[in-house]
């Protein structure tokens, strides 16, 4: 017993170093692929298409944190994606309209609908600083308020999913009804510049791709830091044993609110970059259907892993773009069938295949699903049943493995 106790710190230290090394290598490989290989091999059009996929992947990272680690089935992330997108679109339309002293500073679509002046609540978004701050604060703040109101009343599971989906439907209806200020069904489009850069210039289009790639890497880094921290353990514990966590003196509502607000922030940043890259934002991009589409990519990739949501989102977006060209009406059925197959046979997503393969290399997998002990005692993860926290494909541990009240203590 004493031998195990004395070896444990060194083993955990070695585990941490190896995990950190894998993460650094993973980020380096991703950076090379995104910043060197992709621009050198893809045309401007394909690069812009990949940039669009990266924006959608940012939403997936947040869903992976909130749903995969926190157990919050968020069917309304299109709301926060849309908030970030429309806030950015408002600024771009005002910038294209010019100063108030010149042509009046009224966006073209407003004049088309017979409006001769800009609404007062649009005016602050002439400032780039106000716009950037609003994109970062408004969606996250709204998510925090909604989350606090919902989670303090212990609304969870299917009830929370239905509530978030209803929010997405209401948001899309609101946008459609405000045609004179949001463009209605057509949305906002026809942007000519992005913070002074001409959007028609291929060089600037590549710059936008680099911006989206960098933002995605930052979001993944934030998610990983949260997942491997003490907060990440507490979030998983709330997902699996909320009443137990409450009994230990923690407030599960506050834990959930943080994850929900961070997921909203990530979705808003993705939406803000989506607008100049794609060139349009409309209610069709933020309603119930796209919100479910975000979720499908995360489920297919592996919701409880770090990279699963990213790869799943990019794969689903690419498949949708490719198959829709050949089968315009068949993609939705293919997407639904793939989702059902994955949920039925691979609940952990495609990342589960990688996990099974790695476990098979380490040794026999017991009936409980934990990897076999590496030395006849502690499993390869460091503690009984504990996956490597730095492994991008490792699923979240359970609350039984990580008791927030005792984690990190020694006997």
From TrEMBL:
Any GO CC annotation of this UniProt entry: plasma membrane
Keyword Protein biosynthesis: no
Low complexity bias spans: 363-377
Range of residues in the leader sequence: none
InterPro entries: ABC_transp_permease, ABC_transptr_urea_perm_UrtC, LivM-like
Protein keywords: Cell membrane, Membrane, Transmembrane, Transmembrane helix
Keyword set includes Iron-sulfur: no
Major location category of this protein: membrane
GO MF annotations in UniProt: branched-chain amino acid transmembrane transporter activity
Region of interest (Disordered), residue spans: 362-411
Compartment(s) where it occurs, according to its Swiss-Prot or TrEMBL record: Cell membrane
Transmembrane segments: 21-41, 47-67, 74-92, 129-151, 158-177, 207-227, 257-281, 331-354
Top-level division of the source organism's lineage: Bacteria
Bilayer topology: Multi-pass membrane protein
Pfam family, one: BPD_transp_2
PANTHER family from the UniProt entry: HIGH-AFFINITY BRANCHED-CHAIN AMINO ACID TRANSPORT SYSTEM PERMEASE (PTHR30482), SLR1201 PROTEIN (PTHR30482:SF4)
Name of this protein: Urea ABC transporter permease subunit UrtC
Phylogenetic placement of the source organism: Bacteria, Bacillati, Actinomycetota, Actinomycetes, Micrococcales
């Amino acid at each position: 017993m004493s031998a195990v106790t004395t070896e444990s710190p060194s083993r955990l230290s070695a585990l941490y170093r190896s995990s950190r090394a894998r993460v650094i290598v993973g980020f380096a490989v991703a950076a090379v692929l995104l910043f060197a290989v992709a621009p050198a091999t893809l045309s401007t059009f394909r690069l812009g298409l990949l940039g669009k996929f990266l924006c959608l992947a940012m939403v997936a990272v947040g869903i992976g944190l909130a749903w995969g680690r926190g157990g919050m089935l968020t069917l309304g992330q299109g709301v926060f994606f849309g908030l970030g997108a429309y806030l950015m679109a408002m600024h771009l339309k005002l910038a294209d309209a010019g100063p108030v002293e010149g042509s009046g500073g009224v966006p073209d679509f407003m004049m088309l609908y017979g409006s001769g002046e800009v609404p007062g609540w649009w005016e602050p978004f002439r400032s780039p600083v106000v716009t950037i701050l609003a994109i970062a604060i408004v969606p996250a703040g709204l998510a925090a308020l909604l989350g606090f109101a919902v989670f303090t009343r212990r609304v969870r599971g299917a009830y929370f999913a239905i509530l978030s989906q209803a929010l997405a439907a209401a948001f899309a209806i609101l946008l459609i009804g405000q045609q004179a200020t949001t463009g209605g069904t057509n949305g906002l489009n026809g942007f000519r510049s992005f913070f002074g850069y001409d959007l028609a210039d291929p060089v600037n289009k590549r710059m936008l791709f680099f911006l989206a790639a960098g933002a995605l890497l930052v979001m993944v880094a934030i998610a990983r830091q949260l997942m491997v921290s003490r907060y990440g353990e507490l979030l998983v514990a709330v997902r699996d044993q909320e009443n137990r966590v409450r009994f230990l003196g923690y407030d599960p509502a506050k834990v959930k609110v943080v994850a929900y607000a961070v997921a909203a922030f990530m979705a808003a940043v993705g939406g803000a970059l989506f607008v100049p890259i794609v060139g349009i934002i409309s209610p069709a991009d933020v309603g119930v259907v796209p919100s479910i589409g975000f979720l499908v990519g995360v489920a297919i990739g592996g919701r409880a892993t770090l990279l699963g949501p990213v790869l799943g989102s990019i794969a689903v977006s690419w498949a949708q773009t490719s198959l829709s060209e050949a089968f315009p009406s068949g993609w939705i059925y293919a997407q639904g069938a793939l989702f059902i197959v994955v949920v039925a046979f691979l609940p952990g997503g495609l990342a589960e295949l990688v996990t099974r393969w790695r476990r098979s290399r380490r040794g026999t997998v017991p009936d409980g699903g934990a990897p076999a002990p590496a030395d006849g005692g502690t499993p390869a993860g460091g503690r009984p049943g504990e996956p490597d926290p730095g492994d991008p494909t490792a699923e979240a541990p359970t609350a039984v493995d990580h008791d927030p009240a005792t984690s990190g203590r020694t006997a």
